[in-house]
Amino acid sequence: MHVDLRSDTVTRPSPAMRKAMAHAEVGDDVFSDDPTVNALQDYAAKLAGKEAALFVASGTMANQIAIRLATQPGDAILMEAKAHPFNYEAGAAAVISGVQTHLIATEDGLLTADDVRSTVRGPNDHFAPATLLCVEDTTNRGGGGVYPKTQLNELIAVAKELGLRTHLDGARVFNAVVASGIALDQRLKGFDTASFCLSKGLGAPVGSLLVGSAADMARARRIRKMLGGGMRQAGIIAAGGLYALEHNVQRLADDHRRARMLATGLTGHGFEVRAPETNIVYVAIDNAAEAQAALHDRGIWCIAVAKDSIRLVTHMDVDDGGISRTIDAFAALR
Questions:
Q1: What is the pTM of this model?
Q2: 251-331 has CATH 3.40.50.10950 classification
Q3: For FRET with 167, which of 50, 65, 242, 291 sits at 20 to 30 Å CA-CA?
Q4: CB neighbours of residue 193 within 10 Å
């Protein structure tokens, strides 16, 4: 039996979630009459403190709809250099929205107001005008770091000062909620749009939410259709997402505890580990690709994200025993 720490996207729906999906009431969501999709969107909007929400197929789709909403071709968007929309969304912002991405490099993946202020250039016909600031919380390649609420407030304030709209890529924002103790509506307060995934640590098989104003979500619905994201009897998968939001948020604390347990164990065997705030653990290791293969042979599945770094992600399908097996497998590499 292997321990799969490649990502928190590998989770499988629980029997209770499968039951909710099997018994979901459905309709045609393209006509807006799937009651389960509507219930999920209403619940998500209320939870996020926004006027409306839109159920979409993936976090990438949610982010790209948000970018399209806020920009015109030839605009520039700002984000941290390690952010998901630049690194892992197949160049979609350039293709779908025709925008230029202006990257801001930081050590930990967390932007500051000064970073943004010093990056945005004044009006000049030579420059692509900056119109959108994207913020990732938690940070993926930044090690699952959580933005302090004061820092989010400062980013929103500087964006307003500079005339930028704001989007929060909150693929793992519920990890930030649980780690910080600050409710979702407060963490998203002030952002024009935000996205969050149901298919990562929350355990649903598919889907993300985009939230924002009613007017933006009406436009977002049309963009979703343009991207081929209009789904029919989608209540079957929306039911999994609704179950996840109602039952699986607070249990993320278990994933965080196991990430700390893993980091402590690896440190004890001499590995250099970035201290995790949430459920992502980065391990410095020589010849990471070779180490990944050796760990795989020992039943530990993980990802070498650089020549000298391995990423491990805890989730609901990995228990304490799996963490202990992982520590032992790493120790055997010494």
A1: 0.96
A2: no
A3: 242
A4: 28
Nearest residue to 173 via CA among 63, 262, 89, 71 = 63
Q: What is the four-CA torsion angle of 150, 156, 157, 163, rounded to 10 degrees?
A: 170
First to last CA, the chain: 23
pLDDT tens column, 140-164: 999 999 999 999 999 999 999 999 9
Residue that is written with structure tokens 């998203």 in the block? 188
159-216 pLDDT, tens digit each: 999 999 999 999 999 999 999 999 999 999 999 999 999 999 999 999 999 999 999 9
Please, are residues 260 and 286 in contact by the beta-carbon 8 Å criterion?
no
Question: In the chain, which residues fall in CATH 3.40.640.10?
Answer: 15-247
Q: What fold characterizes domain 15-247? A: Aspartate Aminotransferase; domain 2 (3.40.640)
Nearest Cα to Cα of residue 330 among 279, 280, 285 = 285
Q: What phi and psi values does residue 259 have, to the nearest 5 degrees?
A: -65, -40
CATH 3.90.1150.10 domain residues, the chain: 251-331
Nearest to 134 by CA among 155, 117, 154, 120: 155
80/161 Cα distance (integer angstroms): 19
Which sign does the torsion angle of CA 87, 201, 155, 276 carry?
A: negative
Comparing CA positions, the residue from 47, 17, 313 lying closest to residue 177 is 47
Q: Of 79, 37, 75, nearest to 55 (Cα)? A: 37
Neighbouring C-beta atoms of residue 275, cutoff 10 Å: 12
pLDDT digits (tens, 9 = 90+) for 24-76: 999 999 999 999 999 999 999 999 999 999 999 999 999 999 999 999 999 99
Tell me, what DSSP letter sits at residue 191? Answer: -
